């Protein structure tokens, strides 16, 4: 090879070196992302009290008319849908409670938050996906954020205690301060932050109560404090903020004359049942004893006009719920406002969720603001399963296989934000690929010119 050819070869190697040495996310600036969930915030809770801070988010960013959660409309399953982009039958966190039909073990919600195998059962949430692509993530009280997935834990996490006081506004602000430090001092790229209100108040007092209205005002004050802290932390131009929830809330008909009480159903006996998961709002699962499935189903299927009982294989496909090994052969749900009582009546909440996700009382909120979002945009309702794809696009990461569609929420982003991130299809490499990142046309041109010249002089 003559001397000019050698020089051109060296130049070609120099052009290639930066692209080979660094992944896409290191070659361009990246905005951070904060996902905040206020548990049980029904879609219209901002309509009967003043919420100036949530209103400001709508004016300065994106608001959905409402968001439809996944079914079953319970806290842990719906939160896991947000961070996996999967319907519940596909991610496997099918209930708030861990249960084992063989050992008969059932664990309450807070204990289940720390049960490794309940969460880590095949699906990889966005924290782990982001970390595998070079980012740092955090989870503050978010359901599922305190266990490892395929051996990998979230970079930083906090888990709420069993006797945690959900209502403490001072603690809410302290938690926000900690999250801001995670972004500014620890260099985190993604944080999921969870608040247990207004769910707790809605359960205790009911969704139409004055107590719930006051709690919504507390939520709104907290949103204002959060946005102030974002500005004071110097993150306003580099942090995207999404505020949403897991489900809504509905009033329980506690004094109805037609309560759903399985212990009063004629010809039904718990002696025919091997395992039961009842007395958890409007949902129930039954594992009949061997040979008793048909008998139990025939007794219960038309036992009460407010109760809907199905064999697992016949459960409505539109719910995307029953096709998982953790779901028992018989499952049921009740009409809006009715809970399912098992052996005795032990449910006394004034508000409840877990109902059909198509019902308006189960719909929830979606607000988003930040450098990547359009301003003053209200979008039509969408399913929560699509939020994951949006978050991956905001972070510039390639998502895991999921049930969402990027096209659903891509119109909420400014054009440059939508164009800058990699492709979200696992079958397609990220935009420009890791070797030739998008946004570097001069690199591509240089490579082509060098290759042509090298061919001529070699």
UniProtKB/TrEMBL annotation:
Keywords in alphabetical order: Cell membrane, Glycoprotein, Hydrolase, Lipid metabolism, Membrane, Metal-binding, Signal, Transmembrane, Transmembrane helix, Zinc
Question: Gene behind this chain?
Answer: ENPP7
Taxonomic lineage of the native organism: Eukaryota, Metazoa, Chordata, Craniata, Vertebrata
Cofactor(s) listed: Zn(2+)
- CDD domains recorded for this chain? Enpp
The main enzyme category here is hydrolase
Tell me what topology the record assigns in the membrane: Single-pass type I membrane protein
Q: Which InterPro entries match?
A: Alkaline_phosphatase_core_sf (IPR017850), Phosphodiest/P_Trfase (IPR002591)
The source organism is Camelus ferus
Q: Which GO terms describe its cellular component?
A: plasma membrane
Signal peptide stretch: 1-21
> What's the protein called, per UniProt?
Ectonucleotide pyrophosphatase/phosphodiesterase family member 7
Establish whether keyword Metal-binding is in the entry.
yes
Identify the PANTHER family for this entry: ECTONUCLEOTIDE PYROPHOSPHATASE/PHOSPHODIESTERASE (PTHR10151), ECTONUCLEOTIDE PYROPHOSPHATASE_PHOSPHODIESTERASE FAMILY MEMBER 7 (PTHR10151:SF63)
Q: Where in the cell is it found?
A: Cell membrane
